[in-house]
Write a structure and sequence with these properties.
It is built from 16 helices and four strands. The chain is α+β, with helices and mostly antiparallel strands and 279 residues long. Helix 2 crosses helix 15 and helix 3 packs across helix 14. The chain is globular, with a radius of gyration of 19 Å.
Length: 279
Amino acid sequence: MATREQLVATGLYTPALVIIQSGRRRSERTVPSRLLAGAFLTCVALGASACSGGSDDGGRDPGQQSPTASDSTAANPVANKKTSEPLPPKDSQAIYDAWKAYKTAILTKNGKAAADLVAEDTFDFYEGIREKSLDTKAAELEGLSASEQLSVLVMRIQIPAATLRSINGRELFVLGTKMGMTDAEGSNRISVTDATIVGTYGRAIYVLDGEKTKLKMHFRYEDGRWKVKLMDLMKIANMALMAMATEAGMTVAELAEQTLIEQYGQAKAKAAYTPLGRG
């Protein structure tokens, strides 16, 4: 079962939870911050599967099944193609190198390098956030996932409307990394171990402060290299945010609003609920 601190550290690789954590650092004495921190830690203590309402299955993250040969062939395009293109060698060091390179990119806020080291579906998510920042009305926000809601609101505050109108999902990821929307401070505490590879799919155990957790980091072999499946962390972020809201006695929408007020003040928080428009 994952400890509280372990899932906190994992979630800090997602923009929504970085905002929560930075709010804690800036305003530890406020009641909302304490409530949010306590709810997040409760989710961690229960373990990721418990936060989603599932049963404990030995620490497997929801939606993240153990890799098998059949899974790899069915789910991975490279393995499925009837070509002479070889599968990547089962070299666990390549997984560790990919993680180290990604962590270095985060620590140095090198957005381009980080973008080259995450799976392609990352940019689909960020493109969705970009479009929702422009178009989604306040009444429609509650239909989004927890991490989407908070990410949309934060993007509206931190990134100029003209910029959001002119870039794509990949460029938004690059910009967010440069702006520190991932937690560089916590990154030094994290590493991975016990990597396994099946076809074009890989995973490794998350290590925090030298101690193994039951959380998994997943990887995909794309474009001739191993890349981090950052969207798996978004799933954990959603579970953590929903647990935070529940323990604080709030809806996710109320959690997002309270967090924004703590971070940016009443005026900016209120303005964030208005779509930026297409110009």
